[in-house]
Input
Amino acid sequence: MRFFELETLGDLNDSELLVLDQEPEAVGLDGYCLAAGEPISGSYPADVKVQPSEERTGIQLSAVLGNTFNYLVVSGAMKDVIAEHCPKAAIEYLPFTLLDHRGRVRSQDYFFVNPLGGVDGVDVKASDIKYHRSGAIVGIRKLVLDPEKLRDAPALFRLQQDLQLYVVSEPLARAFKEKGFTNVVLRELTVSAAKA
Output
């Protein structure tokens, strides 16, 4: 099976697209949880608002809202497709109100999608991983996935070795394309050959 990285910045070549560059103030320091796959639903405020800064001139909405803080931000329709393909996965779907540049309500149909934890899916021997002397991973120069480890992985997940990376399975990537979701930037990841 093929796997893809879902880029949270979106298509940077399209200046018309709305890009979020300010984290929601109401979430505070817990915003880290949304970028790193830690649970936040228990402390998530009831009325979270997100507003692009004046520096960002793009206003066109898309299925994936590109952002500079590594959150997965998707439309309600795209959230529904993810939930349909990940019925048993530990994923938080957190709604928010999108404001325009002047602070007026633009949409109430967007969600932060937070896959919790990470799947150990890296082929360590085939990858080029840089470790700190403590054993912690400080960088992955070449990422190769292990298909055996990912046999039972959900359709959307984070890697244990890089929690800031969103990985999408081929069937889910195909569903995104079939639905015509916009601003979905997928980069295919290398998968090692299955062992005989």
